[in-house]
From TrEMBL:
Species whose genome carries this gene: Devosia salina
InterPro entries (alphabetical): Cell_wall_metabolism_enzyme (IPR050570), Dup_hybrid_motif (IPR011055), M23ase_b-sheet_dom (IPR016047)
Entries under Pfam families matching the protein: Peptidase_M23
Transmembrane listed as a keyword: yes
Domain M23ase beta-sheet core, residue spans: 270-364
Leader sequence residues: none
Coiled coil (residue ranges): none
Gene3D superfamilies: Glucose Permease (Domain IIA)
Matches recorded under SUPFAM superfamilies: Duplicated hybrid motif
Highest classification ranks of the organism: Bacteria, Pseudomonadati, Pseudomonadota, Alphaproteobacteria, Hyphomicrobiales
This protein's name: M23 family metallopeptidase
Amino acid sequence: MLRQSASLGSQGDQSGRHGIHPALFYGMFALLLGANALSATALLMAPDIARLLGGQNEMVLSAYEDRLAQMRVEIDRLHSRNYAQAGDINLQLQDLSQQQEVLLEQHQLVRALVSKADQLGIASVTLPEAPPDDLSLVTNLSGNPDLAATAASVTRMMDETQQAMNGIAVAATQRTDSIVSELGRLGIELDLPAPELDGVGGPLLAPTDGAAATSPMIEDANAVMEALLLYKAARQGLELAPVHMPITGNFRQSSGYGNRKDPFTGGRAFHSGLDFAAPTGTSVLSAADGVVSFVGERSGYGKVVEVDHGNGISTRYAHLSGYLAHEGQQVKTGTPIARVGSTGRSTGPHLHFEVHRADQSVDPKPFLDAGKRILAMLG
């Protein structure tokens, strides 16, 4: 017993002297840490693991599917809102594009009308600047398109173009009315074209989708063109009226129409025209469009040229020194037809100018005064 106890004590002392191998020690330590980590993870995931292991996987999947469905609905709602906004913008852009096309067409019409007005001497109407070929969007401070501002810009340009059209019509109508009024006081009625028939009617029916609508712009343009055509006819009628001065340059009116002291007898005598004292050789002009009806001499008048202006109205130019026109010649207002002289019963070089209506002389002064007012109005 004592020998066995001593042997065991000797083995214990030997084990104490040698200790635990290091590799074994670190292996056991690593195993302990791994076990602790697994235990902590198991504790954290215990509810889900328990449900999955307990047959509750259908509930978990259903919850995920519900969340995904909710997110899908939210995304669809956002997309729908964006699409609606984008659709609204597209509709507004489409409207602006259509307005721009109308504006360009309107601008082209006004340009043609202004060109026609310029040909007729209506130069007081200015054409707005041409709109851009491409629709230019106005942007706000954030850089996004400001559709309201862009629409307002397009509307403003359309209003300016419409005002130009109205300005042409107003100018043409006012000038036509002035010419008609001035000549009317002289007993001259212009043969103006009758306005187009404007009778309209029909049953009252509901509007039809897709049916073409009458363009107010075209109607306005037609109205402006009608005003220009009336003005053109009035101008043509004006050229047939002897209201233009028959002489230019250095001259003065030396005698009026009516009773006066006769320069040769000293007694009262009737003077059938206006006298314009001027140097010999000064050009004598036709007071209106017409046809030269007589070239020659008449008693008391000396050398004479007479022009027939139609509608029973003619003019006589007397005491001439020479002729520049011949019988049957078509002449325009301002055409040189003779030269100032002192032939016939005359005290010095001057032009004797008469206006005849139905072969009876009338006072030329109201004609020439009306012409001055009309020319001042025409600019």
